[in-house]
Specification:
This protein is of the alpha/beta class and about 725 residues long. The protein folds into 4 domains: about 170 residues; about 80 residues, no CATH class; about 190 residues, 2-Layer Sandwich (Nucleotidyltransferase, domain 5); about 90 residues, Rossmann fold (3-Layer(aba) Sandwich). The protein is about 50% helix and about 5% strand. The chain is globular, with a radius of gyration of 31 Å. It starts with 5 loop residues before the first helix and ends in a 14-residue tail after the last helix.
Length: about 725
């Protein structure tokens, strides 16, 4: 009846909500109830104030009622209040907003027209939340009500950073370029030499959920670079953080050249020059590093940059000519020795130099497309770019390598794209169209190693290829088998099999399968510099061609490398991958590949298992599947998850003791399945997102999820 009590309506709705079979009546009852309330807006607040189910996460009754009222108001435009009555309702709803989950904020703000409320009143309310120590709630409400321009960005963001809520900070400044710049300048000022982070954090030591270990120069630097990248801000705004990154780059380059000895003098000098630039601080830092190992080089660089000779030890400047001559002789001897060693100990390209083609014009590329775009062709694809050493932005591809039997094509991508740009719209489309044709043709097998990172950089280089990862067919990423290759190649002796190799990534796979590692001394070259040196051309060709040889060898004799013929049949037959959603490391920075693609379990049963509810289904998730574990727990599944430091074998112990099914991926599956009963270990595809993985598990084990299972288990 008209004018009925909203609390009586609430009791009726609560009864319907608890009985699954009556849920269909719920929507009708809510709408009938609103029509019978004298003031539906005040009625909703009364219902929320007298119940608490809406305070948790997920779709509660309170959320259901609120969203239904929002729809009902659109159908009954005369309902919304105005004037003094609306102000009273707004004051009441603000008290609720500070306690409600994120999914209720937007509907309540819309229903009670909070964007029209007095701005000073809203700011005062947020300030009250802040003073109570509810920093996250204050920031989220400010974001929803767009109050940031009237607030102190430093005051709002420091507590959030100390509580490891950087994601909230990013959202807080997300729509306001001036606040982004101000925040970045503040963060950069904390990274100034001599600034003690503890002085900044001292006023907040009593903060709840305070994580001081998450607040230091290193994490601040990472946050600044993430913000610079996300908001496309000029890095010059943050000179202290950029300078720190350059200092770390110089240390890294020094290590690669003089400790690890895996970088040529020419590559090293090129990167040192571009990193130090005109900065006297960086130049002085490098000279001091060099003084410890090679004083002659220190003196040469000091003179090259015009640094005052007093940065050098007494007498060293006078000895410079003699040291310079001595060092040139040593380097020439080392270079000769290196060439001899390289030929003997590293993978050798099995094709002649005239079959490596460096292509810089569209006409030259036609011979490449003619051979590559053949049905049944197998193509090794790789890409090179200038190392960014952690600076802002995705790397841009400088060289695209394509290898077919007995031939390699090196495409000078920047030059080709630049020419196409000058020749007009029609010419601009040619190169991207051919690359798309290659990757989308299922009749052509494309081989790569960690292709998702390459394709991401390719998309950043050419906007016409931004969706290329969605069009992949006939792609084989050899990263899928890298970790599963057992030991070294059959030619290696038993003693060699016991020695841990120093190579990483593709070089290690080449060593395992073909018997010798790749020569990686040119990996950190400046690939944008033209002309390319002969060493760079041979390196780039080898990187692409070795993929053909690995693929051919593994397909011909998988058992010799500990691979089952089933795995290779699956790999060769399917020939397609779903690109990884995870962010890729810079190809030049990654010490070893991670997040490899994994094949789903081939385990099939003769008949579908009997249906089971999530509450009866218990699993243990391996430590690379924590996202899947959290998702299944949301669906009501009994989940245990290994910690990052746990050994995979712990999953088998837990499974046996507690009767759980093991969920794992990749190589550990082979080990774990033999330690539990048949059908008690399942391998999911680790290239999928958690939701897709969960659907795969539910389908395989015939787990039937009902609405009441969702969020039925503590998160």
């Amino acid at each position: 009846p008209p004018g009925q009590d909203p609390l009586l309506l609430l009791k009726t709705l609560q009864l319907l909500w608890t009985k699954q079979e009556l849920r269909k009546q719920l929507k009708e009852e809510i709408r009938r109830g609103f029509a019978g309330l004298e003031d539906p807006l005040a009625g909703l607040l009364a219902m929320l104030e007298n119940s608490s189910d809406w305070k948790g996460k997920g779709h509660s009754l309170g959320y259901y009622i609120t969203t239904e009222l929002q729809l009902w108001i659109k159908e009954h435009p005369a309902v919304p209040q105005s004037g003094i009555q609306l102000k009273k309702l707004q004051a009441r709803v603000l008290r609720i907003l500070s306690q409600c989950p994120a999914n209720l904020l937007d509907p309540l703000i819309s229903i009670y027209q909070l964007h029209t409320a007095d701005r000073n009143y809203l700011l005062e309310h947020v300030s009250h939340l802040y003073l109570k120590g509810d920093y996250k709630e204050a920031a989220i409400l400010s974001i929803k009500l767009k109050l940031q321009p009237d607030q102190d960005v430093e005051k709002m963001c420091i507590p959030l950073l100390l509580q490891d809520k950087a994601n909230v900070v990013e959202d807080y400044v997300g729509e306001y370029p001036e606040l982004q710049s101000k925040l970045l300048q503040i963060l950069d000022s904390w990274c100034e030499p001599g600034v003690n982070i503890r002085d900044i954090t001292r006023p907040y030591q009593g903060l709840s959920r305070y994580k001081p270990e998450k607040f230091n120069h290193r994490t601040l630097s990472k946050l600044v670079f993430r913000l610079l990248d996300r908001f496309h801000v000029d890095p010059a705004l943050c000179p202290n953080v950029v300078n720190q990154r350059h200092l770390r780059t110089l240390n890294y380059l020094f290590y690669k050249r003089f400790v690890e000895k895996t970088m040529t003098e020419e590559n090293w000098a090129d990167h040192v020059q571009s990193t130090a630039g005109d900065s006297r601080c960086l130049q002085g830092h490098l000279v001091q590093l060099l003084l410890r190992h090679c004083p002659g080089r220190a003196a040469r660089w000091a003179r090259h940059w015009g640094l005052p000779m007093d940065v050098l030890p007494p007498g060293l400047a006078e000895e410079l000519p003699e040291l310079h001559t001595q060092q040139r002789v040593e380097e020439a001897t080392k270079a000769d020795n290196y060439e001899d060693c390289k030929k003997k100990d590293c993978y050798q390209l099995p094709i002649s130099r005239e079959n490596i083609h460096f292509l810089q014009t569209w006409e030259e590329t036609l011979q490449c497309w003619e051979k590559v775009l053949q049905p049944g062709q197998v193509v090794g694809v790789d890409m090179e770019w200038k190392p960014s050493f952690g600076m802002v932005g995705k790397p841009r591809v400088a060289l695209l390598q394509m290898a077919v039997k007995d031939e390699v094509f090196l495409l000078d991508l920047p030059r080709l794209l630049e020419q196409a740009e000058l020749e007009g719209e029609k010419e601009k489309e040619k190169l991207p169209r051919f690359i798309q044709m290659l990757y989308s043709d299922a009749a052509i097998t494309k081989l790569g190693y960690g292709m998702s990172g390459d394709l991401s950089s390719l998309a950043a280089t050419c906007s016409a290829l931004k969706d290329i990862e969605k069009q992949l067919h006939g792609v084989v990423d050899l990263l899928t088998v890298d970790k599963q290759v057992d030991g070294l190649s059959p030619e290696h002796s038993h003693e060699e099999r016991g020695v841990r190799q120093q190579e990483k990534g593709l070089s290690l796979l080449v060593h395992h399968v073909l018997g010798k590692p790749l020569d990686k001394t040119e990996q950190l070259s400046n690939w944008e510099k033209r002309p390319l040196r002969e060493e760079q051309i041979l390196y780039a060709a080898s990187d692409a061609y070795c993929l053909l040889e690995i693929y051919e060898r593994l397909c011909r004799d998988p058992e010799s490398f500990g691979l089952s013929s089933d795995l290779m049949e699956s790999l060769v037959g399917k020939r397609s991958i779903k690109p990884r959603a995870k962010k890729q490391l810079n190809k030049q920075e990654a010490l070893s590949p991670s997040g490899q693609q994994c094949q789903g379990s081939q385990m099939e049963t003769s008949r579908a298992p009997a249906p089971v509810s999530p509450r009866e289904f218990s699993v243990v998730c391996d430590n690379m599947l924590q996202g899947l574990g959290r998702y299944l727990r949301c669906l009501g599944v009994d989940v245990r998850m290994l910690d990052n430091e746990d050994d995979h074998r712990k999953a088998a112990e837990i499974a046996r003791q507690e009767g759980r099914v093991i969920l794992t991926s990749g190589l550990p599956y082979q080990t774990l399945q033999s330690q539990v009963g048949e059908g008690r270990c399942f391998s999911v595809n680790c290239s999928e997102k958690a939701k897709e993985q969960a659907l795969q598990v539910l389908k395989h084990f015939n787990v039937q999820v009902s609405l009441s299972d969702i969020f039925s288990r503590c998160q």
